[in-house]
Amino acid sequence: MPDSLIPPTIPTVPVTPTILESLRAIVGDKGLILDAPGKQPFVTDWRGSTVGNAAVVVRPANTEEVSKVVKLCFDNGIAIVPQGGNTGLMGGATPYPSHTGILLSLGRMNHVLEVDPVGYSMTVEAGCVLQTLQETAASADRFFPLSLGAQGSCMIGGNLSTNAGGVQVLRYGNARNLVMGLEVVLPNGDVWNGLRSLKKDNTGYDLKHLFMGAEGTLGIITKAVLKLWPAAKDVATAWLAIRDPQAAIEILSEAHAASEDNVGSCELMSRACTDMVLRHIPGTQDPLKADTPWFLLLEWTSSRPKAEGAEGMSEKMEQFLSDQMEAGRVIDAVISQAESQSRNMWRIREGVAEASRAEGPGLSYDISVSISKIPTFIEKGIKASLDILPSIRPYPLGHIGDGNLHFSFMGPKGMDRQTLHQYSPAITRAVNDLVRDLSGSISAEHGIGIDKIDELAHYRSKIELDTMRTIKRALDPKNIMNPGKILRL
Amino acid sequence: MSDFIQKLAAIVGDRGLITDPAAKHPYLTDWRENFLGTALAVVRPASTEEVAAVVRLCAAEKVAIVPQGGNTGLVGGGTPDEGGREIVLSLNRMNRIVDIDPIGYSMTVESGCILKTVQETAALHDRLFPLSLAAEGSCTIGGNLSTNAGGVQVLHYGNARHLVLGLEVVTPAGDIWNGLRALKKDNTGYDLRDLYLGAEGTLGIITKAVLKLWPKPKDVATSWIAVPSPEAAVALLSGAHAASDDNVTSCELMSRQGIDFVLKHIPGATDPLADKHDWYVLLEWSSSRPRREGENQSGLREKMEAFLGEEMEGGQVLDATIAQNETQARALWALRENHSEAQKREGPSIKHDISVAVSKLPTFMHEGLAAMKKALPECRPVPFGHVGDGNLHFNCQSPPGWDKQRFMAHHEAISGAVYDLVVGHGGSISAEHGIGLLKVDELAHYRTKIELDAMRAIKRALDPENIMNPGKVIRVS
User: Fold this and answer.
1) What is the CATH classification number for the domain harbouring A265?
2) CB-based contacts of B181: which residues, under 8 Å, 6+ apart?
3) Does A474 contact B428 at a Cβ distance shorter than 8 Å?
């Protein structure tokens, strides 16, 4: 939680012993956590920067139990913080210190209900761990494309509630594009069954898209029908040392045609970023001994197996990379020859968040601009930040095909969290002003949660904020559903 | 002239105001002439600011507004009621292309732009705007987005909502929401964009949009295929994905009945194949990579020919022809696109725009045809649709010589049978046309109270005076 944040007003109705007994009657002892050490991991956000309170952690086993719990809270005006894998970066699933209500964890609702390989869909409960879903799809020779650093512990309900992004958005879209239907428990405890597996359905307002990305403030996603794709059969992964961010954009632009539209991922990393990962994540190895400031992780994926004697993805990529070297965009490159090699490349990319936690205090901005403006943003953004704190250490990285940068900084060597945070408001303002000037977004994929409510209020028009508030009030009149997140009412 | 009309004239000028009954008429009836309403005036603002001013005036005077684009909707969503206390707000003067960015693959347009103009503008810049449907010569993009239009390329590119990055909307209070963001990723609060898309003008008026563009196809193969059954059509599509290297952009199923109507009513239409067959598929593959001439390099046409040859041996294809040039391809597409026009000329018809999961489409087809015949044995079913989307226009033509009144007496029995079957198969009673006026009761019947209440809560919250296209999609009172 930002130091400067004045917590919003939220309902403060307490969980009385009577209500606690009613909760126990719904979810049983197995579904309640009351002791402080047991609650601790649920009320603390992943980065350890926000620690809140909850009277009790409630862990329902099915939709019916969620519905009953929510109904009980609705009748009594008790606030609810829904939580999935608790890997969010904006505090959206963390209760405020002033929270007196419950924390509702979906972790026990982790069943895959149906896999339909022929219809390319899968129906799942919200508490399924993302990696489990990827593996379930793979075992049916299908592919569920959502993929991000926290996939071993984040849950699909949280992914959908935050409209998660990740490393495959370029090709498959954000989380909201991977969904056909939802089941949602509404703030009054009613269950909306929108579990339709239809490609086309124009029957009234699109409630599905409203709940996705709402960060649990309009209801609790309990089940989803997910889209599946054919499993990858031919994959080429490469690590490129490149001239600069502009070269990265040009490489991606030409890669679409060269790969015959098979670019799966294209991740930009700065040298400072890869060095940080190599320092902190055991077992990672530098794929190239190139002394260059920028790297690109490029992956091409096809669902067609490589035919005997024909050119596969690797051969096409080899030709492409040598062309790009001649053009001066690529300085050096290695195409993975074994799965262990590509795993290492991906481990470096996915280990960034973990490494940054080990590195110590830092600042990070999840921004997006139109793709062509990325080089300008990096250049101006770094300059503006160094002007405020010359010894801060930038390590930008991002999904350049989506125009999305994680514009991140390690604190100056030896500077403690508290000192760094004195500079944070000025740097935040400078970075977000630049985002605004370049018509970008101040939160491309991580959402708003607690951390950015004041930033959102500052940069969005009154009309837009009022419209959001109107919707929130209409669907959650008692303001019990994740109150104080995204918006102040 | 009443005080209200004078105030309107002060905002939009004489050019922007139609009060003459004859001139108003085309705006007061829908394309199929199923609905005829009345209106105080037809107002045609020239800019977003004028739209906002008109809406503010209407909000103050409690006059309801029916927003209208090209007026090509099939469910009466753009038609005023018979009370005479509404205005029609036509966007058709707001038809400017605001900006085109070929490098960023996006385009900003006013909502009154004709879809075809948008397509052609994209093509001029070597780009594709993929939304494509029969009414493209007269429908407008604002209407397309307000109804989340479908069309013949959904299979590859998605519905209208997938083709949009940002919107500008005039709210029921007359405020302008500027959501014209050209970003691929933006997780900053509720997804207002997707709420307005498909709301049929009941939550606000879309005035501008940032559209996504794609590379223009450089190699296109179009074929007309006779297939033995709907099952064969689904199987054909399933095999086509791999055979085309994932380049299937359209796969349209038609019946002999539909083709007969087109051949009868549309001048110049000819049967592409020598013999008559029960079922046809129009299959199109498109690639943005130009045809490469020379040995071992073949284009989509050659690939399609090989594919159809194999499918013929396998019995999924009875006969087929591949267009050899664009003129031939256009002629094949005209057979598909003239289905609605031909049905209109043949006489009264009852339309059902339904969807089911793709794998259930053949079963639904057989059961649905039987259900229609059972409801009215003399009726003539005209099913056609988008195989890859599980979406059928499951239409029913009147028996020969019947007038509208006589036929419509069977409307409930026929539609009830069809919709019960759709719902029984977990499908949708309106896949792409929306709800409008026509299906308000159907929606209320088939959707749960919880879902309807959630929609009503949103409608009441955003349009508390119920002035924005009242009575469409959902009843609030």
Assistant:
1) 3.30.70.2190
2) A439, A441, B165, B166, B210
3) no
